[in-house]
Write a structure and sequence with these properties.
single chain; 4-stranded antiparallel beta sheet; mainly beta
């Protein structure tokens, strides 16, 4: 997963007329120790967020989005304040624009309302590095004041639903010194064009490691008598096209089997 975030610690936003703005003392999640980015837009439209993302994989889909709030109260200027209007842009590092999204006017509200704005983008073949931009389209003046939270660029893939086949569960509890066999499977929804699979295991919350030869969406779990007691977790990792780019990989929630002391 690729996530780029920029934010500042919450504070009470004040103006000469304090009742003109919302007073933001938390981020959009309600966390008083969280962070967000306040923007008093410039008179002339311009970019106020620029970042670079590297290591994309052609054919993979990503989301570029942010939580945004218009900090001007709807009662200010008889509800005629200038409304923020943003364009999200993804471009190649050598210049050409690949995709854009416009938020439209973000209206004033009587109470604080954070909303998510953004879009999905599929990286063309051969495009590994990109520029992200958020551009202010509206003029400055009476209004066009906003705050942003969770400025995010992340990979999007299929939904992964693991299960112990025939048991409709993701947790097994077994006694020690008992041999057993359980088929594991993972339903993979649409989302990748050419997905590749790798089953992974970890023991007692250790490091995830690949299971040699387990390269499909199903896995036959053989539990040997005498296996050490503890918690064993299995998950399916999925990637588009090959299995060497960590940024483009997604993983299912784990299936857990506990071997308990008798």
């Amino acid at each position: 997963m690729i996530v780029q975030m920029m934010a500042f610690k919450p504070f009470a936003i004040l103006l000469p007329v304090a009742s003109s703005w919302h007073s933001l003392t938390t981020d959009h999640t309600g966390d008083g120790n969280g962070y967000f980015m306040p923007v008093n837009a410039s008179i002339q439209p311009s970019a106020f967020y620029v970042d670079t993302v590297r290591g994309l994989y052609g054919g993979s889909t990503y989301e570029f989005a942010a939580r945004i709030i218009n900090v001007i109260l709807s009662s200010t200027y008889n509800n005629n304040a200038i409304q923020p209007n943003l364009t999200f842009t993804i471009s190649r590092t050598d210049g050409p624009i690949l995709q854009t999204y416009n938020s439209g006017n973000i209206p004033s509200t009587a109470s604080q309302q954070w909303n998510q704005y953004g879009f999905f983008f599929t990286a063309p073949p051969g495009v590994n590095d990109i520029f992200l931009r958020m551009v202010n389209n509206a003029p400055g003046g009476c209004g066009n004041d906003l705050a942003l939270d969770d400025i995010t660029f992340r990979d999007c893939g299929p939904q992964l639903t693991p299960v112990v086949t025939g048991f409709n569960t993701t947790t097994l509890n077994l006694c020690e010194n008992i041999a057993a066999n359980y088929p594991l499977s993972c339903t993979v929804s649409a989302g990748f064009i050419n997905p590749v699979f790798q089953c992974q295991i970890r023991f007692n919350n250790g490091v995830w490691t690949d299971v040699a030869g387990a390269n499909s969406s199903s896995y036959n779990l053989n539990i040997l008598a005498g296996a050490p007691t503890g918690g064993y977790e299995y998950r399916l990792a999925v990637e588009e096209g090959n299995f060497g780019t960590l940024q483009c990989r997604i993983s299912s929630s784990p299936i857990l089997h506990n071997i308990n002391v008798s």
